Amino acid sequence: MLAKRFRGFFPVVIDVETGGFNHNTDALLEVAAITLKMDDEGLLAMDETFHFHVQPFEGANIEAAALEITGIDPFHPFREAVTEREALTELFKGIRKAQKKAGCQRSILVGHNASFDLNFINAAVERCQIKRNPLHPFSTFDTVTLSAMALGQTVLAKACEAAKQPFENEKAHSALYDTEQTAQLFCKIINKYQQLGGWPLPEEKAEEKTEEEQKEE
To answer: Given strand 28-38, what is the order of strands in its sheet?
Structure first.
């Protein structure tokens, strides 16, 4: 069912923490991702989680203001950070495996202000010259837009509050926590739309009914 829900796209919720706002010059410091699954009722839920602390690439710019927000010490000895190549290789391996299992043709990044996360991922892919990137190079599912439509909010914490989803501000700006919150929010919005009768589309429901009637005959 998941393969049919988003035109063959496999949704992967991703959040990154960085050393600034410029994906070409600033360090990628943390990345987290959660794959999604769909049950027999057509409802989305979180599945596998991936999380990596990342070593700044050689020559990377790191803004002090960015570290104040995230609380990351890029060179802490107990951080257990890996290189960009190691992080992305392992992440993409897991995504491709889940994508294949779901019968989807391509993965797509789900994020809050998704273009920010995708730009940093794409920049790291280019630096590392990684050939097999399962993510669509420019299309995304942005929970900012979905939250504005469904909840009247655009800030992640406010959107979660409107969706009756607990959000702890002191845990924000951790890639793993923000990914978990974004994944829950995305699933809630998509599932609510499904429960309200918005999906499958009316014509698809009619086709399914016709197929069932044909089987009965």
So the answer is: 44-53, 28-38, 9-18, 106-111, 135-142
